[in-house]
């Protein structure tokens, strides 16, 4: 039996919504704070924020970010 | 006949193009002879960058976007933390936080640290930093 046209439309819309939700989920996951180091030869390592190395990296990065000052868009706002 | 016309017009076009190109002076990539210019160059080509500093092999600040001492201290801390994390000197490191992102790159005996806005394109940032350091090193900066 052929599906009714409105059913097709609903399916299409909900599949787009599912795609968008998955994209947002992936994006949020990828945008989590991270600390990665890369070595000559191509080796790399990632450090979780709750590890000792990760804590030291995040702390040092935060200090550097503080030295650089606030984001440009905030600085230029009046 | 139409084909002959096309050939003639193409020849004319290539001659005109050559004549135009002969008048245009060659545009060379900027030569970065000192670290101060390198910092300005990085600031110019990286709109998402908030600031950066360049260090010599010995860890001395050659130039920075702001206060040399503050950049020097914070930059050396980041490098030390990155080196200590994996137990060997890093080629580059990238730390992303909620307030911004910090990068450090070692290239040709020089080191650069930079802070950018969040979600910046890391590969582009690292490429710009690496190329800048390479040019600086080629000009002999930090070796005297």
State the total count of DSSP E strands of chain A.
2
Report the average pLDDT across residues of chain B. Answer: 86
Biggest pleated sheet of chain B: 5 strands, antiparallel
Q: What order do the strands of the largest sheet of chain B run in, or round the barrel if closed?
A: 2-1-5-4-3
- Radius of gyration of chain A, CA atoms, in whole angstroms: 22 Å
The largest sheet of chain A has its strands arranged as 1-2
The rounded Rg of chain B comes to 22 Å
Helix content of chain B: 40-55%
Task: State the low-pLDDT regions of chain B, or none.
Answer: none
Order of helices and strands of chain A: HEEHH
CATH homology superfamily of chain B: Dynein light chain 2a, cytoplasmic
In terms of DSSP E residues, the strand content of chain B is 15-25%
In the CATH hierarchy, the third-tier topology of chain B is known as: Beta-Lactamase
- In N-to-C order, the SSE pattern of chain B is HHEEHEEEH
Task: Assign an overall shape of chain A.
Answer: elongated
Number of domains of chain B: 1
Largest sheet of chain A: 2 strands, antiparallel
* Backbone structural class of chain B: alpha+beta
Query: Helical proportion of chain A?
Result: 55-70%
Can you give the mean pLDDT of chain A? 85
């Amino acid at each position: 039996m052929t599906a009714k046209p409105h059913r097709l439309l609903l399916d299409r819309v909900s599949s787009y919504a599912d795609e968008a939700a998955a994209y947002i989920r992936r994006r949020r996951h990828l945008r989590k704070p991270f600390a990665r180091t890369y070595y000559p030869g191509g080796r790399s390592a990632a450090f979780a924020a709750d590890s000792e190395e990760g804590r030291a990296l995040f702390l040092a990065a935060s200090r550097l970010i503080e030295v650089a000052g606030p984001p440009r868009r905030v600085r230029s706002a009046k | 006949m139409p084909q002959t016309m096309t050939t003639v017009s193409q020849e004319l076009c290539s001659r005109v193009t050559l004549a135009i190109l002969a008048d245009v002076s060659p545009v060379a990539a900027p030569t970065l002879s000192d670290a101060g210019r390198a910092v300005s160059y990085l600031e110019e080509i990286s709109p998402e960058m908030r600031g950066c500093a360049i260090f010599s092999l010995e860890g001395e600040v050659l130039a920075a976007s702001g206060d040399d001492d503050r950049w020097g201290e914070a930059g050396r801390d980041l490098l030390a933390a990155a080196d200590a994390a994996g137990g060997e000197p890093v080629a580059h490191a990238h730390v992303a936080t909620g307030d911004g992102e910090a990068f450090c790159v070692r290239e040709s005996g020089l080191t650069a640290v930079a802070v950018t806005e969040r979600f910046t394109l890391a590969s582009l940032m690292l490429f710009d930093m690496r190329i800048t350091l390479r040019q600086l090193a080629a000009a002999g900066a930090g070796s005297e």
